[in-house]
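Morning - zinc ion inputs below, output right after.
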Amino acid sequence: MPNDALAHDFLPSDLFPQAEWPTANGALENQPQFRDAATQAWKISEVNAMRKQNTEAGFTVADGKPNTVTQSTGSMRAGDVGNLPQVWYSNTETALHTHPPTPGTDGRPSPDDVAIAKRQKKPVMVLSKDGLFEVDAQGNMTQVYKGLDWLNKKKK
Ligand SMILES: [Zn+2]
């Protein structure tokens, strides 16, 4: 899968150069509530991966606030991540889900993730060991953060 985003190190000032609100200016992913929910989702995937279980976890965002983290467990087969069903309401602004850190699982947004973003006309976010990715409503992929250090970044 071609992915130009991986060829670059994105600086905070480069966040979402083409993205629409609410992710413009890096606002959403810098919110403590968003980071807490992302951390919670990631831990579910990480712990289950240690048990060799593929689990996607995630949450939707409405009115600038993350909803409850939910999870979906796939089979033990490599590559079967058990896609997480997420319900989009009219006020849903974006949805984040994890790609588990199990061998054979791509950390980047999948073709299905791109299709969902285009269908919902809203950004879709994917969190994996490779970092945080965003697919915008037009289907363009951006790597927002490399790696997972941003989850622990303290607000200045
Ligand atoms: Zn996905």
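Note: The pocket of zinc ion is lined by residues 97, 99, 109-110, 113, 126 (CB under 6 Å).

O.
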